[in-house]
Design a protein that fits this description.
Blueprint: H1 2-8, E1 12-15, E2 40-43, E3 48-49, H2 55-71, E4 75-77, H3 96-101, E5 106-114, E6 119-128, E7 133-134, E8 139-144, H4 148-164, E9 172-180, E10 187-194, E11 201-202, E12 210-215, E13 221-226, E14 233-238, E15 244-246, E16 255-260, E17 266-273, E18 276-283, E19 289-291, E20 299-304, E21 310-315, E22 322-327, E23 334-335, E24 342-348, E25 354-361, E26 364-371, E27 378-379, E28 386-391, E29 397-403, E30 411-417, E31 424-425, E32 431-440
Parallel strand pairs: 2-4, 2-5, 3-5
Antiparallel strand pairs: 1-8, 5-6, 6-7, 6-8, 9-10, 9-32, 10-11, 12-13, 13-14, 14-15, 16-17, 17-18, 18-19, 20-21, 21-22, 22-23, 24-25, 25-26, 26-27, 28-29, 29-30, 30-31
């Protein structure tokens, strides 16, 4: 199924002509800082269905667009039953006074049609209500009907980026470990879903334990730790074909905590040899490995910088888990975490400006971020057990695992803005852990 999606879900994108063409962005902007408290009110009337076959899709698309924007915590939807103006045509003039009267600052209008060929065509425009002007050009997306949710995410991404000035992230997926069964005998299998919890698909059975899936930069593969052979081995999975193979040499050593390089042709991971755990790099095509660290301490959880030149990892070489940065090819490492407690599971942000991490201190776990030199540490969450952060493609949101205490405790996926606001639980069909946020879909 996934393979079919890869081959058929090719979204065509076009810029619409007048009257929305060639307009400079207006003054409507959200400055995303700690000071943002009041979400920006927006209205999104039900998209116009240009033919009967598009009626239900028009409603569904509109709801997904509104949900994407509202879930950021930066926007507040004005309910449709509060609208005064009634949009009966995609080409009709905007009734500015009516939208101002209900307090809308942004307006999204659109249309949907299902062509005789079966293609779905979605058009949309974004307006700055107070300045009474389009905010950017109108856009048109063309794809298959089964890809309607992706088109909705594309529309929401465009609106989000134009208003915030930041990169998009709605049209993306999250890999995770789906868990079931009692706490002391959990069954685990790999799963993948849209960023908002829709379209869950299971990629492996629950016959063996799987841990820590990580997307390749192009989103087509996952690398993860599998116990299928009886002990942990780094395994590569083609998300489309579901074919998988163990990588990292033919040795019987334990290997785990893998992560792709930004170019996707290399993997860095931890391996245990002679009772010691160090970092290794693997060239996927040739299978050649190189040892990156050689210390009596435990080095694990490596993550590349976006330009591929550096690695951040955790090590107990100072006596307890701390974060270190070193050249990607190995070499002298410098410690960057100096606060109280233990630091683990670091991951470099897509923009390269922050490192997200797990921190354990005074009996609580936190998800935090710091600059890459260790400065400006900021804790975003605090709970019984928060761990394993992963970044959204635009580096604005961090998703992580939160587990509740007690015999009935179970893990779930949560997300939080890097300002520490908008903590939300991500919907999953069952208990879930180890999220990995993939890149924007192509």
């Amino acid at each position: 199924m996934l393979h079919r999606l890869f081959t058929t879900l090719c979204l065509g994108l076009a810029v619409l002509g007048a009257p929305a063409a060639a307009q400079d962005p207006g003054p409507l902007r959200i400055e995303i800082t700690d000071g943002v408290i009041e979400p920006l009110p927006f209205a999104v009337p039900r998209f116009i269905a240009r033919n009967p076959a598009a009626e239900d899709l028009a409603q569904d698309l509109t709801r997904v667009i509104a949900g994407d924007l509202a879930n950021t915590g930066l926007f507040r939807e004005i309910p449709q039953d509060a609208h005064i103006a009634r949009v009966s045509s995609f080409e009709s003039a905007v009734q500015w006074a009516d939208w101002k009267a209900i307090g809308a600052q942004a307006l999204i209008t659109g249309s949907v049609s299902v062509e005789p060929s079966g293609q779905l065509v979605v058009q949309f425009r974004l307006f700055d209500v107070f300045s009474e002007a389009p905010l950017g050009e109108g856009l048109q997306f063309v794809g298959t009907a089964e890809g309607w949710r992706r088109m909705a995410h594309k529309v929401a991404d465009a609106a989000y980026s134009r208003i915030t000035g930041e990169g998009p992230y709605f049209d993306s997926r999250v890999a995770f470990v789906s868990e079931s069964g009692p706490k002391d005998a959990r069954l685990k299998r790999l799963a993948i879903m849209d960023y908002d919890g829709a379209n869950v698909q299971y990629l492996t059975s629950s016959d063996s334990i799987v841990l820590a899936p990580r997307f390749s930069p192009d989103g087509r593969n996952l690398i993860y730790t599998s116990y299928e052979s009886g002990f942990p081995r780094v395994t590569l999975l083609d998300v489309g074909s579901l074919q998988r193979r163990i990588v990292g040499g033919e040795t019987q050593n334990m290997s785990f905590a893998p992560r792709f390089s930004p170019s996707g042709d290399r993997v860095v991971y931890s391996a245990e040899a002679s009772g010691n755990t160090d970092l290794y790099a693997l060239d996927i095509a040739s299978g050649a490995t190189s040892r990156l660290t050689d210390a009596p301490s435990i080095e694990t959880a490596p993550s590349y910088s976006p330009d591929g030149t550096q690695l951040v990892f955790e090590s107990d070489r100072s006596g307890q888990q701390q974060l270190y940065v070193m050249p990607a090819g190995g070499g002298e490492a410098r410690r960057i975490s100096f606060g109280e407690g233990r630091y683990s599971t670091p991951v470099w942000s897509p923009q390269g400006d922050y490192i997200a991490f797990t921190k354990q201190n005074a009996g609580r776990f936190h998800i935090g971020v710091m600059r890459t030199d260790g400065s400006e540490e900021r804790l975003l969450t605090g709970a019984f057990l928060d761990e394993g952060p992963t970044w959204s493609p635009n580096g604005r949101v961090v998703m992580f695992t939160r587990e509740t205490p007690g015999a009935a405790g179970a893990p779930a996926l949560y997300s939080v803005d890097i300002t520490g606001r908008n903590l939300q639980r991500a919907p999953t069909p069952a208990a879930a852990s180890d999220p990995s946020w993939g890149p924007l879909l192509k």
